[in-house]
Amino acid sequence: xxxxxxxxxxxxxxxxxxxxxxxxxxxxxxxxxxxxxxxxxxxxxxxxxxxxxxxxxxxxxxxxxxxxxxxxxxxxxxxxxxxxxxxxxxxxxxxxxxxxxxxxxxxxxxxxxxxxxxxxxxxxxxxxxxxxxxxxxxxxxxxxxxxxxxxxxxxxxxxxxxxxxxxxxxxxxxxxxxxxxxxxxxxxxxxxxxxxxxxxxxxxxxxxxxxxxxxxxxxxxxxxxxxxxxxxxxxxxxxxxxxxxxx
Length: 247
Description:
The protein is of the alpha+beta class. The protein is about 45% helix and about 10% strand. It is built from 13 helices and 10 strands. A hairpin with a 2-residue loop joins strand 4 and strand 5 (about 105-110).
C-alpha cells in the first residue's frame, strides 16, 4: 500500500494486532542485545516517545526515515536477497505486515529496521554506522517506527495514476530533464516522493507542459492520503516459487 495511514492498515485486523503485540513485547524486553544496539535504538522503543516525535516531525514538515531492501540488508551486513528470504512464508522471520508498499516495492520505517535484530529468535547486530549514513543521506527527518502515522508517499506508478499520464515514458522524460520535482528519497535504486511534494509542483509542471494538463485526480489523492489506495503499485508482484503466495 502507499503509505499513509498507520502500518498494517491493509493487513487483516487479527494478523496486524498479533504483529503489533509481538513488537510491543519486544520493545519492552530488556536484553544485552538491545544495549549493544546503542541508545539510538532504545530511544525509539518507547511508544510514547515515538508518537511525540512523529507528531513533531509532521508538524515541521520533516520526512520519516525509510529503508528499502538494499538499505535494510546493509544495516545487517547481508546481501539484499536475504531480505526476501526473511520474508518468505517458509521462514517468516520478517513479517510482510511491517512494510509499506509503494510502486509494488516494500519499504520499512528506519526505526523498525534498526531494532529488527532484537525481535528475532537469533539476535542480529545492527551496523550503527550504516544507520548514521542513512539518516545523513536522507537529510533532516524523524525516526519512524511501526504504528507511526506516515505521510502519503508515492512512486512512479502512483504518480502516473494521480495524473492519468499516457505512459511511463512521459514521466521518465520529465524526470530525466529535471522538470519534475527532485525525489524525497532514493531507496534501493527507486525514487519516492511525498505526495505533497508532487502536488505542490503542479503549477510548475503546467507552466512547462506542451499538451498534458497535469490535472490532479483528487479521488486518487484522497485515497493516497487515507491509506486506502488500491490502484497500480499498491500490491507487491512476486516472482519465483512464492509468486502465487501472498507475501
